[in-house]
Amino acid sequence: MALNPLRDALRQAGAGAFGEATPFRAEADDALIGFRALRDGFERQVRRGDLTPKVARERAAEAAGKLGEALRRQADGYSPAPRAFLDRLVEASNARARAREGLSLEGLQRETNRLLRRSLIEQQLVGRAHEFEGRAFVRPMIGGPPAPTLDSLLDFHETAVHAGDEAAQEWGRRQLEGYRNRVLNADDHRKIDRACDRPEAVNPRTVVGYVEAIRGRGAEELEAFVGQALAAGDASACAAAFVLAREAPEGPRARLVRSVLEGLGSFPDAAIESLRAWEADARRSESEAARAQADFAAALAEAEARFPGLDAPTDAELARRAREHARPVARLDQGEPIGLALDRRGLDPDELRPAPTAGH
Hints:
With 360 residues, the protein is mostly helical. The protein has helices at 5-17, 24-48, 53-75, 84-101, 105-127, 129-136, 150-163, 166-179, 186-196, 204-214, 219-232, 235-247, 254-262, 269-304, 315-326; strands at 137-138, 147-148. A two-stranded antiparallel sheet has the order 1-2.
């Protein structure tokens, strides 16, 4: 059991809050600023003798509780991205599902042919495995059984692409994907990604590469990339366009967001399904990060509401304060110095308020 439960809770809340950055931190900070202004007011009232420390702590604790409730309510389902991104993805996914259910005879034939072609490729992968290995595997100079190398697999895949051999292309891609863990060079990883890229499938690493290459460019370049992704029907490029639009701030890039959301109907099926899963996961993570910030702000407010070290003023202190306030305020507008006018005083902090404007 912790010797100081409040300190332990504050430490845990702080560790959770600073584990992930979230725009919700600004809202939590604003709420804390308002709470601290209220808390400082209670503290001044205690020092003036208008409130007892017990009452001040009770009121501050009540304000801290309301702050925690309000922030947790805001953090529930919080995401900096507009809800329209998830709604449009769900709408597009449902529309695709309805379209598949109502396929025409011609559409059913195309789907059947696609499945038959995939089945044929899988059969060839088994039947031609020795052929592929003989073409792609290299016998080491120091002896031993033949084994693939990155260059031999890349050459094999490139030859298969030029020959239009779909089974060989698929075998080469699978071999390269399995070879990834054996190379450490970033350039080699990029070569594997380019070779394994399938326009009809989403490759998360390719999406990350697109986003990193395009992020920070001007609005015109971003819009050009989105247009090219939609025209090519490349699932990874379309997914990257969606991610870039989700990150785009309002204002100059609003047109980019609008073009991506309007073009969702043209996204490949794989991009729609992957993005829907990613968006749901992203919103859940953003809500959890916001909740961590809300918990930390609430723990801070609870700790500060205890007013550590605050005691009620003694009778002597109250009497001295009364004597000070009995003296008139120094005439600063007439150049009268406070330090040399012992029968006058300066303004109290509570009296230092902006003068009311005309009409108020």
